[in-house]
Design brief:
Layout lengths: L37 H5 L11 H7 L1 H7 L2 H7 L2 H8 L2 H19 L3 H5 L8 E5 L2 E2 L5 E2 L3 H16 L3 E6 L7 E4 L5 E4 L11 E2 L9 E6 L2 E12 L2 E7 L21 H21 L7 E4 L5 H14 L3 H8 L3 E4 L10 E2 L1 H6 L13 H7 L11 E2 H8 L2 E4 L2 H10 L14 E3 L6 H4 L2 H11 L11 H6 L3 H29 L3 H9 L7 E6 L15 H9 L5 E6 L7 H15 L7 E4 L4 H10 L2 E4 L11 H6 L4 E5 L4 H4 L5 E4 L5 H21 L8 H17 L2 H44 L4 E10 L2 E9 L8 E7 L9 E4 L1 E5 L6 E9 L8 E6 L14 E2 L2
Parallel strand pairs: 1-4, 1-11, 4-10, 11-12, 12-15, 15-16, 17-18, 17-20, 18-19, 20-21, 21-22
Antiparallel strand pairs: 2-3, 5-6, 7-9, 8-9, 9-10, 13-14, 23-24, 24-28, 25-26, 25-29, 27-28, 29-30
Bound molecules: pyridoxal-5'-phosphate.
The site of pyridoxal-5'-phosphate has 11 residues, from helix 8 and helix 23.
Family: Belongs to the glycogen phosphorylase family.
Catalytic activity: [(1->4)-alpha-D-glucosyl](n) + phosphate = [(1->4)-alpha-D-glucosyl](n-1) + alpha-D-glucose 1-phosphate
Organism: Anaeromyxobacter diazotrophicus
Length: 855
């Protein structure tokens, strides 16, 4: 890496008087002046989904472009003669100018958000995630969580939702997989050289490199800041690999999910505390902070601390202000999946939080992250911390919302599960990143070029007008592309293992471009049951092997380095794919990554997914096949539980055990999928199959797109959160301070709240309730009495009727008679009286979960 003093500055845009605006500090070579504008294109990761400038990169260095798909690397590596020749080629230079002008115009064009919410004036949403899967040019992800975060940034850019993201720059990231002939997995950790990554140092106004500092025990930790551009969205990356740091600390941001829990805690402190400071250092002021999974929850703590310092508030008051603007998305469907840190470990690193400066103690942090704040032995749970510091929490599919309400029920003791304040925003994928060139062309013809930039309202209609033959053509050509790519990858794989020319010849002959192609690729985690399809190898081999109706299978996936069972499952698949009778029909491709995923989801006819319900919070890989005309066959878990209809795909019936699910999977393939694929009309097109494709593309692709997801977040979450945060901050945070007093009073005096005698008068229209409610010293405006009934059988919503506070009870300071009428046919015995906190600006029970029930 170039030392700072040798950094090259760009000659562009020096403003009068001030220091030159530096854009390409980190390009190690000079470019001919006519090609300088290319740096702007190369540094905008928009090239991961827009292919407008592909031809330019190919022209400069076809080999580097094919291998890396990273234009920044092309600029570094292109032979000098090629650059000189291109710079003196008038046609090339004007193509460059056109591409840059178009790029700038696109970034400035009014987008959906500006048009739909012209008055919103939303400050950039601060988005925190431990991983980002934007593309192989910037490999900072392990799997679905990161790919989702990457897709979120891209869709925010498309829609013009203002967003500034924060993450970590891993020197090694997640491991790369190599697999031996025996099936044994090896993990490799290639170095992410920042010089080759499409990122730049984040600079301050004077051109100096931005850093933030954390106070680790006995030494400071310096974090360098890098900037990645994703269209209109900025991603700031924190990097501990600075020579100013203690040698051991430089590796804090080396591996993703690789080192033990101490490094993990440090990474999460860097992401949360360092990340919030990084945004401030970069001049970003946010109203809304979005935590993508609990890893990032320390950001909410640092945000509150900074608020307290800036407003002369206590940490408690600051939490009441900032919580309104914090959003927590949980991605975990089982309690074991939450990050937990032992209190001793957290205490060692408490200095990094500097809570004393805000008049608080480190114990306040530990209390916030415990189910029982008073239990000093309880670990710090990052999901609890997220829930307690964010007024809004959501799961990532409808089913996962339900599962999360159950999982977090214990944080809201004695509240009915249906009222646990966790909703859902179902995930979606950034369609332009996952469609093939061919699918892009078909959709452009059917629905126009700007189809993923608006509200998607006309897509279903457009797709329904596409002729059967065109859809089948898309399938046929795409399958052929995948077959060619799989042969190429397999040949490389065998070559690297040293298997010689015979193996290469064998690779060239695998798979058949006309055979029904199943895809199965994912992390080899046990709950995903990657071997369910393999549970009866003979039956699977028979399915693949029929000469009249051949079926083939492409499999890929990594097992976490510490997951021995997962590694055994990888080995099982690899060995199966070597069987002489299936070798030509089943291929295991190593090193599943975004680039391979793109090829797979574009080419398969059917995508198979077999998670154990309800362990898949959402799952997104199946969404990626939709736009390309692939169909899903999946367990009814995650997104598929809300997406599946009999017209759009296939589902394993719910409630089965592993054996039943395996049987159902084989049966569906043998009796439904295979026959439907091979039932051809006189024109050679399988009519029923194409009908299904069209239904899946037209109805599901828009609904499970990141466009829909980000619009949901913007309208249902970000805008209300920003408005609520502004109200709490106004006027020296008057409302936040009032809420803090209100909550403190409830905490201190809730014991005194008591529901006395209740009278019910019933007639044919319903019931009249009268309850004597004693609330001791709690003012009656701070509470509300309600008539409550559980949902009716089959219903989802409980009955809640607010009661009216009436006459004071004789001889009591704050005792009142509360009354309500409930029009209903249900018996009076279904109803009960309860008292809950009440404040028009508080989220109950998310922020105040006291409750008292009629005995
Ligand atoms: C989409 C994607 C995932 C997530 O897929 P799941 O369906 O959640 O398993 C994981 N890895 C890669 C490389 C992906 O592209």
């Amino acid at each position: 890496m170039a030392p700072r003093s040798e950094a090259r500055t760009a000659p562009s845009g020096s403003s009068a008087g001030g220091p030159a605006r530096r854009t390409q500090l980190f390009l190690a070579r000079g470019l001919p002046a006519a090609l300088e504008p290319l740096t702007e294109l190369a540094l905008d990761l928009r090239w991961t989904w827009s292919h407008a400038s592909d031809a330019l990169w190919r022209a400069l260095d076809a080999d580097a472009w094919e291998r890396s798909a990273n234009p920044w690397l092309v600029l570094q590596d292109a032979p000098a003669e090629r650059l000189e020749a291109a710079a003196s080629d008038a046609a090339f230079v004007s193509a460059v100018q056109r591409a840059v002008a178009q790029h700038r115009a696109r970034l400035c064009a009014p987008a959906w958000f500006e048009v739909a919410h012209p008055q919103a004036a939303l400050a950039p949403v601060a988005y925190f995630s431990m991983e980002y899967g934007l593309g192989e040019g910037l490999p900072l992800y392990a799997g679905g969580l990161g790919v989702l975060a990457g897709d979120h940034l891209k869709a925010a850019s498309d829609l013009g939702v203002p967003l500034a993201a924060v993450g970590l720059l891993y020197q090694e990231g997640y491991f790369r997989q190599q697999v031996e002939a025996s099936g044994e997995q090896h993990e490799r950790y290639p170095y992410n050289d920042p010089l080759s990554l499409p990122i730049q140092p984040a600079l301050d106004a004077g051109g100096g490199w931005l850093h933030v500092q954390l106070a680790l025990p006995g030494r400071p930790l310096w974090l360098r800041l890098w900037r990645a551009q994703v269209g209109r969205t900025t991603l700031l990356l924190l990097d501990a690999n600075d020579a100013l740091n203690a040698p051991a600390d430089r590796g804090i941001t080396a591996k993703l999910y690789g080192d033990g829990s101490e490094v993990r805690l440090l990474q999460e402190i860097v992401l949360g505390v360092g990340g919030w400071r990084a945004l401030e250092a970069a001049g970003v002021t946010s109203e809304v902070c979005h935590l993508n999974e609990g890893h990032a929850a320390f950001a909410a703590v640092e945000r509150a601390r900074r608020f307290a310092l800036a407003h002369g508030a206590t940490l408690g008051e600051a939490l009441w202000a900032t919580r309104a603007g914090n959003v927590f998305t949980t991605h975990t469907p089982v309690a074991a999946g939450f990050d937990r840190f032992p209190p001793e470990l957290v205490r060692r690193y408490l200095p990094a939080f500097e809570l004393e400066a805000a008049g608080a103690t480190g114990e306040a942090l530990l209390r916030l992250g415990r189910r029982d704040p008073g239990d000093a032995r309880e670990p710090l749970n990052m999901a609890v911390l997220g829930l307690r510091t964010c007024a809004r929490t959501n799961g990532v599919s409808r089913l996962h919302g339900e599962v999360s309400r159950e999982l977090f029920q214990e944080l809201f003791p004695r509240w009915p599960r249906t009222e646990v304040p966790i909703g859902h925003v179902t995930n979606g994928v950034h369609v332009p990143s996952w469609d093939s060139h061919l699918a892009d062309r078909l959709w452009t013809d059917a629905c126009g070029k700007a189809r993923w930039l608006g509200t998607l309202s006309n897509l279903e209609e457009g797709l329904c007008a596409v002729p059967d033959a065109a859809l089948w053509e898309l399938r046929t050509v795409s399958r052929g592309d995948l077959v060619r790519y799989a042969r190429f990858r397999l040949e490389q794989q065998l070559g690297q293992r040293g298997e010689g020319p015979a193996a290469a010849a064998q690779a060239a002959a695998v798979l058949d471009p006309t055979a029904l192609t199943l895809g199965f690729a994912r992390r080899f985690a046990e709950y995903k049951r990657p071997n369910l399809l393999l549970s009866d190898p003979a039956r699977l081999a028979a399915l693949l092997g029929r000469a009249d109706r051949p079926v083939q299978l492409v499999v890929a996936g990594k097992a976490h380095p510490a997951d021995e069972l997962g590694k055994r499952l990888v080995a099982e698949w690899v060995r199966f794919s070597h069987r002489a009778d299936v070798r030509a029909r089943a291929v295991f491709l190593e090193d599943y990554d975004v680039a391979l995923a793109q090829r797979l989801v574009a080419g398969v006819d059917v995508w198979i997914n077999t998670p154990r319900r309800p362990w898949e919070a959402c799952g997104t890989s199946g969404m990626k096949v939709l736009v390309n005309g692939g169909l899903n066959l999946s367990a009814l878990d995650g997104w598929w539980a809300e997406a599946w209809t009999p017209e759009t795909g296939w589902a394993l019936p719910p409630g089965g055990d592993d054996a039943a699910d395996a049987a159902a999977l084989y049966r569906l393939l043998e009796e439904e999928v295979v026959p439907m694929f091979y039932r051809r009309g006189p024109d050679g097109v399988p009519g029923a199959w194409v009908t299904r494709m069209r239904a899946s593309m037209a109805r599901l692709a828009p609904r499970f797109s990141a466009n829909r997801m980000v619009r949901d977040y913007a309208e249902r979450v970000y805008l209300p959160a920003a408005a609520s945060f502004r109200r709490r901050c106004a006027d020296g945070a008057r409302l936040a301070r009032e809420l803090a007093r209100w909550a403190a009073e409830l905490d201190a005096r809730w014991r005194e709240v008591r529901i006395g005698p209740v009278r019910v008068r019933s007639d044919e229209h319903g019931h009249g309730f009268e309850a004597q409610v004693e609330c001791g010293e709690v003012p009656c405006e701070a509470i509300r009495a309600e008539v409550y009934a559980d949902p009716e059988p089959g219903g989802a919503e409980p009955v809640r009727v607010a009661m009216t506070c009436g006459a004071a009870l004789a001889g009591s300071a704050e005792g009142h008679l509360w009354t309500a009428r409930v029009a209903t046919r249900r018996p009076a015995a279904d109803f009960t009286i309860r008292v809950v906190p009440s404040h028009p600006e508080a989220a109950v029970p998310a922020e105040a979960w006291h409750i008292a029930w009629q005995r």
